[in-house]
Amino acid sequence: MTVCVLHAAAEMFPLLKTGGLADVVGALPPAQSQLGTHARVVLPGFPAVLAGLDDLKLVASLGAAFGAGDIRLERGVLKPHGVVVYVVRADQFYDRPGNPYLDAAHRPYADNDRRFALLGWAAARIATGVDPEWKPHIVHAHDWHAGLAPAYLRAFEREGAARVGTVMTVHNLAYQGTFPASEFGALQLPGDFYAVDGVEFYGLVSFLKAGLYYADRITTVSPTYAREIQTQAHGAGLHGLLQTRTHDITGILNGVDYSIWSPSVDDTIAAKYTAAKPAGKSKCKAALQERMGLTRDEDALLFGVVSRLTEQKGLDLLLSAVPDIVQRGGQLVVLGTGDPALETGMKNAAAAHPGAVAVELGFDETLSHSIIAGSDVVMVPSRFEPCGLTQLYALAYGSLPLVHRVGGLADTVVDCSLENLADDLATGFDFSAFDRAGIVGAIRRAFALKARRTEWKNVVKRAMGQNFGWETAALRYAEVYQGLLGA
Ligand code: ADP
Ligand code: GLC
User: Fold this and answer.
1) Which ligand 1 atom is nearest residue 387's CA?
2) What confidence tens digit (pLDDT) does each residue in 72-86 have?
3) 308 C-alpha to ligand 1 centroid (Å)
4) Residue 268 is assigned to a structural domain of this protein
5) Which residue's C-alpha comes closest to atom 19 of ligand 1?
6) CA angle at residue 60 from 57 to 66, to 5 degrees?
7) What CATH number does residue 52 fall under?
8) pTM for the structure as a whole
9) Which ligand is nearest to the CA of 142?
10) 17 labeled binding residue
C-alpha cells in the first residue's frame, strides 16, 4: 500500500521562510515522494504562498469558522518538484503584509490562536474527505501552528469520522502556542478537551501540548533533542507528558537539500567548487569580505553566522568572545534579525572593529549562501538546538562548524580533538560548558588548526564528504508511519 501523508505547517521553502522549519517542509515531502510515500502539504494562504504556486484551483468551500467567513480550500503545485500544496484561503486571517506570525511592531497577532486553529482544522477536514480526489492516511503536523490538527481529528472521530493516523513533529519545544483559557470556546473543540488530559497547560490553552497529547506518534528533529526534551532541564514544562509518551517518541535528524545547498551547484555564490577542486572557495571568501566591507585578507580566519537573533542561539556568548577573534587576526560576519538588544549588540561590535567585524541585519537568502560558502568557520553556539541546519550546510561547503554540544549540533559535528583527528573523524569544533571559557577554547582550537594547513585541509575535505541527504530521514519517517498504520 502506498502511504499518503498530509503535512500541515506554517512555512515551506521557497514559498515562505523564517527559519529551518521552512527548509524541512520544503525538502521532506519531495524526498518522501521519491521513496514511495505520497506526500502533500497544507499551508495557510499567506500572500507569498499564493504567489508561488502554480495551477491554483478551488477544491471546496469550507464556509465560516473561527470568526472568518467564506473560507476556501485551494490546491496548487509547487515547482520544480511538483509537490501538491493545499492552501487555506481566509484573507481576513492571512492577507497581511510582512511576517506570518508578528505584526509591524513585532508582537504576535492578537488572533493567532484562531489563525492557526484554522490550519489544524483544515488539515483535519482534508483528512476526513473534503477533497473528493485525495485523502491521506496520516496527518503529519509540524510545530504548534499545526498542533490542533490531531485534536480536531479526535473530535471528528467522535462524530463518526474514520480514524486517521497522526504524527506531531516538534521542531522547537520553546514555541508552544499558548493562549488564554477564555479563547478555548472559540476553537470549536468539545468542552472536555480543555483538561490536563487534553489541551490545557497550566491554566492556558496550548497548541503544542494538544499535538503532543492527541497525536499517535511524536517525532523531533534529532536523537539527542529527543532525549533532552524528556528531562526537566530541557522539557519546557512538557517533560512530564513527554515521559509518559516515551515509547511513541522518535528522534529523526533533519537532512540537507543538496540541490540547493551544495557548492558544486549553487548559482548564488561567487564561484562554484568541490572537495576535489576547492579553489572557488577562496573566491567566495574574497567576495564575502568585499561585500561586507571587511579587510581583504585571505589569511584572516573568517567566522560566519547566519541566524535568527534570539536567546536560543547563544549569540550573546559569541559577542563576549568577539575580542578573542579580532585580537588573533580573525574576522566575523553576522547575518541575522530578531531581538532588538542582540541587533544593537551586533551593530556595536561591528562599529568597535571596523574591517574585522561586519553585521547585516535582515533576512537575505542569497547572502546566507555567500556567508556559508565564504566563511572558514560557521558558528552555532546555541543554548539549545533541536537540530540546526546551518552547521549541516557549513559542512557541505567545507566551512567548519563551531558549535555548542547540544541537541542536533552534538549529533552532527565531530570535534577536532587530538583523538578524533588521529582517528580521521573530526569535522569541526565544539564546546560543552556554555560559558566564555568554553567558546573561547573552541575559537582558539580553530586558529590552531588553521595554522596546521595540511590538517585543516583534511578536515575540510572530510566535512564536505559527510552525507546528510534527506533519504535517510524520509525512510525513518516511513517506518514511523508504517508502525502507526500497523503495516
Ligand atoms: P532555526 O530554524 O532555529 O532558525 P535552523 O538552523 O534550523 O535554525 O534553520 C535556520 C534557517 O534559516 C537556515 O536555512 C538559515 O540559513 C536561515 N536563516 C536564518 N536567519 C537568516 C537570515 N537572517 N537570512 C537568511 N537566512 C536565514
Ligand atoms: C527549529 C529549530 C532548529 C531546527 C528547525 C528545523 O526552528 O530551532 O534546530 O533545525 O526547527 O527542524
Assistant:
1) 7
2) 999 999 998 999 999
3) 6
4) no
5) 307
6) 120
7) 3.40.50.2000
8) 0.97
9) 2
10) yes
